[in-house]
Amino acid sequence: MAHELEFDSKGLARMAYADREIPWHRLGKPMKGLQTAEAMLSAAQADFDVVLAKVAVVDDEGNFITNPDGTPVLVDDSRATVRVNPDGSFDGLSTVGTRYVVQQNRECLDYALAIVGASKGDAVVDTCGVLDGGREFFSSIDLGGLIIDPKGINDKIERYLLVRNGHNGKTAITFANTSIRAVCKNTVIAGMNNAQRVFTARHTRNVESALAEAQSILNISTEWAKSFSATAEKMLSVGMNLSSARMDTLIHALYPEKPQETDRQKRNRDNVHMTIRALFQTERNAGGYGENGWSAYNAVAEYLDHYRDGGVTERAIASMDANSSVTHKKIKAQEVILSFA
Question: How far is C-alpha 251 from the chain's CA centre?
Answer without folding.
Answer: 27
